[in-house]
Design goal:
The chain has helices at residues 28-37, 67-77, 99-116, 150-169, 191-200, 219-231, 248-259, 285-290, 299-313, and strands at residues 17-21, 41-46, 58-61, 81-84, 121-127, 137-138, 172-178, 180-182, 205-207, 213-214, 216-218, 236-240, 246-247, 265-267, 279-282. It has 315 residues and is α/β, with parallel strands linked by helices. It has a domain at 17-183 and 216-242 and 282-295: Rossmann fold (3-Layer(aba) Sandwich).
């Protein structure tokens, strides 16, 4: 009688482990539950202490502008994927802030540490401010890149280095160029938040003529677009927008409809900023057809959710 011997092998389980920077920021916080749903082990980093709730995420406290803290963090986690949002974002100031240069250097340190610890795929957040703002519809790898601001220059410089670095060291990489976004939790001085807060508080909301055409996307859809790109094998720049043009005036009117503050908005009370382009709309062919992303909310639904949030959070 023969005895059959079946060898036992230790099972190897591959876990996709993602590090999200700027995880308490406007977009970053919305990506966390989506990543968890997709099966990622989610590691979120914030420069400020965060109350560690039992939500399935691993929270880390680190100042990414300090190289030693950054390298220690990445070494500890050894992420397979990197989703990088952290940057200076204070309205108006970030366009010219010298901190852009600090975040450029920090982002390069982060990329290098990610590669040195076995990272596989990286996705950084870019901006439509990288484009030359003299066109109507903006297409990746076709529309000229000629940023007019220090912020845009630093972001574009990072994208060029990211692409070259990843090509050299065989890392999969993508770059999400965000157009215009809005939603709950946005900085109170941004357009949609400012108008919404003003009208709910029965205060005047001065606006420009509002003829500019813009591409607005609800923040939860922006977050889902980033997660979809990260999961895909699409490389290089990807526009993140709705692909639909809406005038600032029509956007503000939608807020008026939700708040009943039509009489509090005066179009033309503010001058149009010098150099403000007439039209900024994303071509989203790559995002929709190659990544396979579809938005969950239309503009009206996004405004409705945003107004409802501010009603519950105004002090």
């Amino acid at each position: 009688m023969f005895r059959i011997i079946i060898p036992l092998f230790k099972q190897s389980i591959y876990m996709q482990r993602v590090l999200v920077t700027g995880a308490t920021g406007f977009v970053g916080k919305y990506t966390l539950p989506l990543l968890l749903e997709r099966g990622f082990e989610v590691h979120a980093v914030s420069s400020k202490p965060v109350k560690k709730e039992n939500n399935g995420f691993f929270w880390h406290h680190a100042d990414l502008l300090k190289k030693d803290q950054l390298t220690d963090l990445v070494s500890k986690i050894s992420p397979t994927h990197l989703l990088h949002f952290a940057w200076c974002t204070e309205p108006k100031k970030y366009w010219t802030s010298p901190d852009n240069l600090k975040w450029l250097q920090s982002s390069l340190n982060l990329l290098d540490a990610f590669k040195n610890n076995g990272g596989e795929r990286v996705l950084f957040a870019g901006t439509c401010a990288e484009y030359e703002w003299s066109f109507s519809r903006y297409v990746e790898n076709k529309t000229p890149l000629k940023p007019a601001t220090f912020y845009g220059i630093c972001k574009h410089s990072l994208q060029l280095i990211l692409n070259a670095y990843c090509r050299e060291f065989k890392l999969s990489n993508a770059w999400g160029r965000i157009f215009f976004l809005f939603g709950p939790g946005e900085h109170p001085d941004r357009l949609v938040s400012f108008v919404t807060r003003s009208l709910l508080g029965n205060k005047m909301a001065p606006c420009s003529k509002g003829d500019q055409l813009r591409d607005f996307l609800f923040v939860e859809d922006v977050a889902s677009a980033f997660v979809s790109i990260l999961e895909s094998n699409v490389e290089g720049p990807v526009n993140i927008g709705s692909g639909v043009a809406v005038t600032i005036k029509d956007l503000v009117r939608k807020i008026c409809e939700k708040t009943g503050g039509q009489d509090l908005v005066k179009f033309g009370d503010l001058p149009t900023s010098p150099g403000d382009p007439g039209e900024l709309v994303a071509d989203v062919t790559i995002l929709v057809k190659k990544v396979g992303w579809v938005p969950k909310y239309n503009l009206d639904e996004g405004i409705e959710k945003t107004v409802r949030w501010w009603k519950n959070n105004l002090s």
